[in-house]
């Protein structure tokens, strides 16, 4: 996902630079990824228009990156499948084995309990 996917919808991204979602979105953007804020308030963050839901995003999304508590995260995996995302990423501490099973059964790759900033250095030829 880190190498092949360009457009990342970040669920829970607000304009608060103290939040982890903001820092990771900025990290992804600095590495050439397009970041799409998905938040009920639909804020513009890091220069990108936000949307209240994944269904509101009017263009294809490659990865849905979820910054929500485990008990609320599964619905976003389901929404990611529904919009045709190529992958789902649950951040550190976000676990939902049932959502993983549903997403995998739909043929959509998913990772849980890790962070792009942690995984990026493992890419061949990457510069962290």
From TrEMBL:
<protein>
    <submittedName>
        <fullName>CoA-binding protein</fullName>
    </submittedName>
</protein>
<dbReference type="InterPro" id="IPR003781">
    <property type="entry name" value="CoA-bd"/>
</dbReference>
<dbReference type="Pfam" id="PF13380">
    <property type="entry name" value="CoA_binding_2"/>
</dbReference>
<feature type="domain" description="CoA-binding">
    <location>
        <begin position="2"/>
        <end position="94"/>
    </location>
</feature>
<dbReference type="InterPro" id="IPR036291">
    <property type="entry name" value="NAD(P)-bd_dom_sf"/>
</dbReference>
